[in-house]
Write a structure and sequence with these properties.
Shape: elongated
Distance between the termini: 19 Å
CATH class: Mainly Alpha
Number of domains: 1
CATH superfamily: Metal-sensitive repressor, helix protomer
Largest sheet: none
Structural class: mainly alpha
CATH topology: Methane Monooxygenase Hydroxylase, Chain G, domain 1
CATH architecture: Up-down Bundle
Number of strands: 0
Length: 94
Amino acid sequence: MELSDVAIKEARARLKRAGGQVLGVERMLSEGRECKDILPQLSAASRAIEQAGLRLLAAGYAWCSEHPGEARANGCSPEELEALFLGVADHGVA
């Protein structure tokens, strides 16, 4: 399945944001900051990673829907897409 440049750009931006938040959490831990300050940042990083994965999944689904023959030939059957989606829903992204 092919991913559009837009989907890749959006996912990378979210991952970059998550990376910055994780570095911020590490810094807060080393500074001895309180849990109430740290946990919202950790949660935000987790959401950013999840959103990056969901964006890629949505883009892949769109491509496979628009190119069903090519998608199936490349191992992207509706059943495999469903398994990817359910894996994300059951376990989160990453």
